[in-house]
Amino acid sequence: MAWGKAEHKAGRFLKELDADDVYDQLDTMRDYLKELTGAFGKIAGRQLSHARDFASDTAHDAEETMKDNLGASLVLAVGLGVLVGYMIRRGTE
């Protein structure tokens, strides 16, 4: 009998449902989602711009540090090259 009540309520709900109201609600939801995605896009764009600026500044700072310490940078690069060469040679034996 409880199942019959549920069917009765569902049938009554469907009878009271107006197609125009459903379309209006769908239009409202579509407009809301459009605004929401637009706002999200703006925020994501700003964050990407900030991240790009930060990465650029960091790379510039690293380049300046290398230029200021050119001797140490060259020694480090040669040392890493020798180490990688040694490891590759040892791995093939």
pLDDT below 50 for ≥5 consecutive residues: which ranges? none
Please give the domain count.
Answer: 1
Compute the gyration radius: what is it? 33 Å
> If helices are DSSP runs of H or I spanning 4 or more residues, what is the number of helices?
3
Mean pLDDT: 85
Helix content: over 70%
Strand content: under 5%
Please describe the biggest sheet, giving its number of strands, its sense, and whether it closes into a barrel: none
Compute the number of strand runs.
0
Structural class: mainly alpha
Helix-strand pattern:
HHH
Shape designation: elongated
C-alpha termini separation? 82 Å
Report on the structure:
The chain starts with a helix and ends with a helix. It is mainly α. The protein has one domain (22-92). The mean pLDDT is 85. The chain has helices spanning 2-16, 19-68, 70-92.
What's a concise summary of this model?
This protein has 93 residues and is an all-alpha fold. Helices cover 95% and strands 0% of the residues.
Write the layout of secondary structure elements.
Blueprint: H1 2-16, H2 19-68, H3 70-92
Annotation keywords:
mainly alpha; 95% helix; 0% strand; 93 residues; single chain
